[in-house]
Amino acid sequence: MPLFALGFLLVILQPSTGQFPRVCANVQSLRSKECCPPWDGDGSPCGELSNRGSCQNILLSQAPLGPQFPFSGVDDREDWPSVFYNRTCRCEGNFMGFSCGECKFGFSGLNCTERQVKTRRNIFQLTTSEKNKFLAYLNLAKNIPSQDYVIATGTYTQMNNGSNPMFRDINVYDLFVWMHYYASRDTLLGGSNVWRDIDFAHEAPGFLPWHRAFLLMWERQIQRITGDENFTIPYWDWRDAEDCEVCNDEYMGGRHPTNPNLLSPASIFSSWQVICTRSEEYNSQQALCSATSEGPIRRNPGNNDKSRTPRLPSSADVEFCLSLTQYESGPMDKMANYSFRNTLEGFADPQTAISNPAQSGLHNALHIYMNGSMSQVQGSANDPIFVIHHAFVDSIFERWLRRHRPMLEVYPAANAPIGHNRENYMVPFIPLYRNGEFFKPSRELGYDYEYLQEPAVQSFQDYLTPYLQQARQIWPWLVGAAVFGGIVTAVLTGLIRACQKKKEGTSSEIQPLLTESEDYNNITYQSNF
């Protein structure tokens, strides 16, 4: 195989982001607190010999946190990932990955220099073949082990500070279910005590950037295991929906004929087993979810508590949310008022933007409406509807970014709930990403949404073409007008100079210099249109 082709394969087949890299889930890495694996392309740590990156100390944010978490040193996720590792690969340029072996989102090619923008499409606009391929990809991910990542089945303390590693294999789809669980789980305080008011992916500023990164990683994993580099996640536009339009066997699974809480046997998803849904059991055992099977997907759309979620979100709800100018406000949690993030997440009323956690709007409304596996935060990603739902939520975030064009400084730098400050690293991703890195337009991350693409997004030349054609038609008139204007200007200039010479009869000594006038500093220049 030619060296160029081999190098290209090494780039596109590099692992994407997940939880614990398999090569770092061992005693040596945990005890040394270093995760700097060699890049397969040259065998050096972080691809340093190829100038892809180097092993560096992790720089943690020192910005103060909000008051929601009153503890310190009791949770492995604090100052992520320093409990496990304090040295990781820091990649250069457009390189990315735990060994700097892949390209940043939005780049491709042997040296990661080729820009690319892929389009996420409405699931109902896919052809039958495209839709079936998407469903097949989901099922493949559920049945193929992750080659590059493992999950932790115990805390760092339970691992005897790294001397007794506790990790296990997991399939690609469940890897992401577990990551969502791990980011949102309760803090284990010992005995039977837990702290519930903590979440590294929800109820705070990082909600939208975290899920944006999560979907990009999920998308890349599917591209990798299928070899389909053009794959993108479809979205479900649920605005004004009267029921769950994707809850049928053609799409995400219909209702079971005899048990309304289960999926139809005709759906491929009816055989799926869920993980990480028994939070109270884990809490009582002071244990982590070990990703063992816990039964089938449960879903009973529409038979939810109507007092909490009376209907699915409307277009008016979305438009009002988009009109909010503040990304975050107040305590920066689920009690925030007039916050775009809190309103889109669903803890604030989508008609007033006033916090009301007893009600569920927009994003939260869909989860509650599904009335099953999707309705419990830690295990919600078990239902494949999670992916197409969050893709649409991300598109609303994108609309807000394009409408208001916020600077990065709009994202809170300090005093947000734990893990949600701008420079905090997102839990539990390795390689490391800061919240602020995903507070940017999607096209800068390599993707767009079909319904947000503007026909006017063409080349600058295409934009100017109609104006240039009009200019060509009136060019002779423009030239004639310019010549005539020049002649008139010359004549007027001559007359003015002649008049000025006649007035120069008095001595220049009696004409005060402007710079000597005591009013010089008070002169202002005014222009009237």
Structure characterization notes:
This protein has helices spanning 3-12, 27-32, 128-143, 172-184, 207-226, 279-285, 315-323, 340-345, 362-370, 385-404, 460-473, 475-503; strands at 20-21, 34-35, 53-57, 87-91, 95-96, 102-103, 107-108, 114-115, 118-120, 149-152, 167-168, 187-190, 193-195, 447-449. The radius of gyration is 30 Å and the shape is globular. It is 30% helix and 8% strand. A hairpin with a 5-residue loop joins strand 5 and strand 6. It is α+β, with helices and mostly antiparallel strands. It has a domain at 20-229 and 408-452.
Short description:
By secondary structure, the chain is an alpha+beta fold.
Blueprint (SSEs and pairs):
Blueprint: H1 3-12, E1 20-21, H2 27-32, E2 34-35, E3 53-57, E4 87-91, E5 95-96, E6 102-103, E7 107-108, E8 114-115, E9 118-120, H3 128-143, E10 149-152, E11 167-168, H4 172-184, E12 187-190, E13 193-195, H5 207-226, H6 279-285, H7 315-323, H8 340-345, H9 362-370, H10 385-404, E14 447-449, H11 460-473, H12 475-503
**Overall pLDDT confidence:** 88
Helicity range of the residues? 25-40%
Largest sheet: 3 strands, antiparallel
Q: What is the 3D shape? A: globular
Give the helices and strands as they follow along the chain: HEHEEEEEEEEHEEHEEHHHHHHEHH
Show unreliable segments: 1-18, 456-475, 502-529
Distance between the termini: 70 Å
